[in-house]
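help with this record:
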Amino acid sequence: MSLFIGLRYVRARSGQFFVSFISWVSMLGICVGVLALITILSVMNGFENELRGRLLSLAAHATLTQNPAALARWPDLIETAGRQPGVAGVAPFVELQALVAHEPELQAAIVRGIDPTIEPSVSEIPGALALGRLADLEPGSANIALGRVLAYQLAVGIGDTVTVMIPVGGTDGDVLNSRIQRFTVSGIFEVGLQEQDGQLALVHLDDALALRGAPGITGLRLRFDDAFAAPTLAAATATALGGGFHVSDWTRENASYFRAIRIEKTMMTLIMLLIVAVAVFNIVAALVMVVTDKRTDIAILRTIGARPRTIVGVFMTQGVVIGWLGTALGIVAGIAIALNVDTLAPLLERTFGFQIMDADVFYITRIPSDLQAADVTLIGVVAFLLTVLATIYPAIRAARTEPAEALRYE
């Protein structure tokens, strides 16, 4: 009986149009709130994945450094590390603080010596732009690949020559001299992050060792099958190699980036939940008005033997149906939009004549989306629970209606 009467109250009737209108507006508000939450969280997940991919495109999942004695036998370390569970690749590297010059420009840079036969090509990295190939970084070729911003600051292009200078210090830390070598720009890459595009220069490992003028590599770069397991796997790999290394992984080096994204996601979730909260308050208001309007009906039901819990069920049914419909519609619409953001965004740009992600301003020129089932489930459950809670006060108020008082003036 509670379900039947509650469903009748949900439908619009001539004498209750305003109350029913408020109910349907509440349902629409819940739908919009859920839709917005799913879409926004999916887009933010997409941006987080894009940022992570760009950070890891030229960066290692983990590095092992500051153990010169062990690193002197790095070919053996690479072989041992490559056999460790979860390790997808190991590569030696040399990293130098340097000045890169092309008259009249002079820029500070990080010159990284790599082995292109082990490192991936920039052109194979999703979201990266490469002019030239890392494969052109051959031993003794004196070729160099520059980040796009660094190349722009130096006003150089493919085939131009730059001068690389590194300081040579004494035992007391003073700079005694500098080592200078000329390199030919064989590649320009763009990952989309200032830290790499504006500071990084890549040369062959042998050329970096020759430029430094000292034997030994800086460390080992590790890649794992699961990037999120980097902290655990990096420590285990360092232990397997005999220990004594300084272990650093991408989650530690880029913690500030992802902490900022988490804070933004949390704040956006709270803001979007306000839409749902407003709709929930509308449900409370609508049910209170229904209770007031139906005092006579409630009194009659109580008179013929309906229990208070039956009355509670009637009005909770009405609120739950509104909440369920709004949440379900919001989930369906939110999933549809989140899965088609890459299609809808260009359509909006063409229709209204504006560009959402201007290539002159943003590195990322498209809106990425990553729909996660956990987010959809959490949003749906929270929205539905809020609507259930909204029905409690009006339902209890209806159950407390005194039949004699309600029928006195009827």
